[in-house]
Amino acid sequence: MLLADRTAIVHGGSGAVGAAVARGFAREGAVVHLTGRTVSPLEDVARRIRDDAGAAHVAELDATDRDAVDRHADTVAAQSQGIDICFNATSNDDLQGIPLLDMAAADVLRPVTKAVTTTLTTATAAARHMVRRGSGVILVMGGGRETIPNLGGSHIAWSALAGVCRQLASELGPKGVRVAWLLSPGSPSPGEENRAAEGALLTKRPNYDDVANAAVFAASDWARTMTASELNLTGGLVAD
What we know:
Its EC number is 1.1.1.-. GO terms for molecular function: oxidoreductase activity. The structure is a single chain. The chain is of the alpha/beta class. It has one domain: Rossmann fold, CATH 3.40.50. It has 6 helices and 7 strands. The protein has helices spanning 16-27, 39-51, 66-80, 105-133, 154-172, 208-219, and strands spanning 7-11, 31-36, 55-60, 85-88, 136-141, 177-183, 229-232. It has a 7-stranded parallel beta sheet with strand order 3-2-1-4-5-6-7, sandwiched between helices. Helix 1 (16-27) packs parallel to helix 2. The longest helix has 29 residues, at 105-133. The relative contact order is 0.15.
């Protein structure tokens, strides 16, 4: 298994992406610690993982609360002799469907502030433990670089996330910690997996398992030379 004996924290673990990634990590042998603001949906994800013979733990946590995130990371590291993987899939509370000309500045900036805050908070909490052992992987769920109107602060937030990840990678790389972010063409709704995103080159958009598989690869030793890297899962919607 690619992640045998690894310890992974998945923030936003009850969302569609976070849950899929958590199951993927567990399937490949990692012990997964799920966090989120509401315990019951986290327990549902943990139950599915345990039903498949995986190991999962649950904690109620606000990813914008730096002290709480630090305490959680300290607890996980003490129980597991360290943290190997940290994945942030928390939502950004964005407002879409309105042109920027008509939006209040607070509505535009809210997702930017939350995205940067949760990424910095979760990544630094885990990284403090990773650098002590000289290894670890920080992963972030990002968003598109395509030009789509009326997405409010979403694209601004995703661009900011990429900047944060690059900065973290530059500072943590010499200490043995890798940083990467995943780019996808929006969240696939049930039944949309076989339909391409408009403008994409491939005929199928990624499903949640595709995102999870990419996260597993990025977290594994197979990707040991990848950092400051974006994993492009857009099916050609964004061309590199």
